[in-house]
Write a structure and sequence with these properties.
Elements lengths: L7 H10 L4 E3 H11 L1 H7 L2 E3 L2 E4 L4 E5 L11 E4 L2 E3 L7 E5 L21 H9 L4 E6 L10 E6 L6 E9 L6 E3 L6 E3 L2 E3 L6 E3 L7 H4 L7 E2 L2 E4 L2 E8 L22 E6 L8 E6 L3 E9 L1 E3 L3 H7 L7 E6 L13 E4 H5 L2 E4 L2 E7 L3 H17 L9 E2 L23
Helix pairs in contact: 2-3, 3-6
């Protein structure tokens, strides 16, 4: 990193005194075009980012409180969606992609997946009552064996999001080179390359603005679900060993974040249950990260534009499901956001699962929080592992077990 211009402590002092200069990542691009990197770096203290879209690896921990007599929950369902109970007596975790036991799933294809874990989370944060059903085998200290009650977020001891993998740093552009319509977590893909779907805010997306994770890590304060959350560390499938542009921007999925936050101070506008035809359920999450301008390099990386950010075009009819590393090409986010891309001589219409206007609203909300003094910055206790860490994403090393094997 180039010579340090300011510290996070100095930025926080400016926030306290009402003198901080904050711009969104979109505004930063215009400033750099006008004044250049060095001048902008001296002027701007913080750059805000945002993203809003389905993030399947999300979930919620709740403590429902002890009953009279007490129960040690073995199996539990929230509005018919199973929650994991293998923690302690009344601690539960519900994942965004869990579906009810009686959901027909894809037995009648494509399944509609009208309700799942993501919808339960949305209902709770919206203040709706949720039906808890629980069973237990009973013990001397926890004798109760059955429970059926309504829950409301205001009555829960704790309710906090814990999302193992959010804010993917870049992602695939999904197409279907096959002969039949397919149903994926990136939406419905028509045959013979009839459409292309993507899911990223591009030039507003948090990890694309700090490609080497120089300013974020354990303890970084963020916008999460309409409230204030924190980064726990690198998320699952974190893969900093990714091909990059000359400016360091990853051209593949690359980094991820594990994040957490108190559901009780969040907003249902920014945590929305999602149904994906033929695939399942998920949770659309609003997430934004403030990037402190500590050096000119911070500005150089954060000012990368849509035309400088490239994503891989992947065939979801064959290559993706069979874990092949092949790509059909690369395309910029400027092209994706234009509504069409070219693959060879073929022109393909595009669609996004990520809302850019929502991402911009998050970036502006975070900007206003900082300017008003509501939100200060944290120095990370530990940085997110970068390319120098040697961390690489690995497929499962399958070792088939035969009958009689131990």
């Amino acid at each position: 990193m180039t010579k340090q211009i300011r510290t996070i402590e100095e930025i926080n002092e400016k926030i306290k005194n009402g003198k901080v200069v904050v711009v969104t990542a979109e505004e930063l691009i215009d400033l750099v075009e006008k004044d250049g990197i060095e001048k902008t770096a001296k002027k701007v203290d913080v750059v805000t980012t945002g993203t809003f879209g389905p993030m399947c690896s999300s979930g919620l921990f709740v403590n429902v409180g002890h009953t009279k007599p007490k129960i040690k929950i073995q199996k539990a369902w929230l509005n018919g969606v199973e929650a994991y109970a293998g923690l302690a007596a009344v601690d539960l975790y519900i994942g965004a992609t869990q579906i009810p036991d009686d959901d027909p799933a894809n037995k009648v294809f494509p399944g509609e997946f009208k309700y799942g874990g993501g919808h339960v989370i949305h209902d709770l944060v919206a203040g709706k009552d949720v039906h808890l059903e629980a069973t237990s085998y009973g013990t001397n200290c926890y004798p109760r064996k059955k429970l059926s009650t309504l829950l409301n977020i205001k009555d829960l001891n704790e309710a906090f999001l814990f999302n193992p993998r959010n804010a993917y740093q870049n992602y695939n552009v999904a197409v279907n080179a096959g002969d039949k319509t397919i149903y994926t977590y990136l939406g419905v893909l028509q045959p013979k390359l009839a459409n292309a779907n993507y899911c990223s805010a591009g030039q507003l997306s948090p990890l694309l603005k700090d490609p080497f994770y120089k300013t974020i890590g354990l303890g970084t304060k963020i916008f999460l679900g309409g409230g204030i959350g924190h980064i726990v560390g690198a998320g699952t499938q974190h893969n900093p060993d990714s091909p990059r542009t000359s400016k360091g921007t990853p051209k593949r999925g690359s980094g991820t974040l594990c994040v957490t936050g108190d559901l009780k101070q969040m907003d249902p506008k920014w945590l929305v249950g999602v149904s994906m035809l033929g695939y399942g359920t998920s949770l659309a999450v609003g997430l934004g990260i403030p990037i402190p301008v500590l050096s000119a390099d911070t500005v150089k990386w954060a000012a990368v534009k849509d035309e400088e950010i490239f994503a891989p075009i992947v065939d979801y009819s064959n290559d993706y499901p069979n874990a092949k590393p092949d790509i059909l090409g690369e395309v910029s986010y400027k092209e994706l956001k234009s509504g069409k891309i070219k693959l060879g001589k073929k022109e393909i219409p595009t669609g996004s699962l990520s809302g850019y206007s929502k991402a911009l609203e998050i970036a502006n909300t975070l900007k206003n929080w900082i300017k008003s003094g509501k939100f200060t910055l944290n120095s990370p206790a530990e940085k997110i592992p970068g390319p120098e860490s040697g961390i690489k994403f690995r497929l499962l090393n399958e070792r088939p077990v035969k009958n009689g094997d131990k």
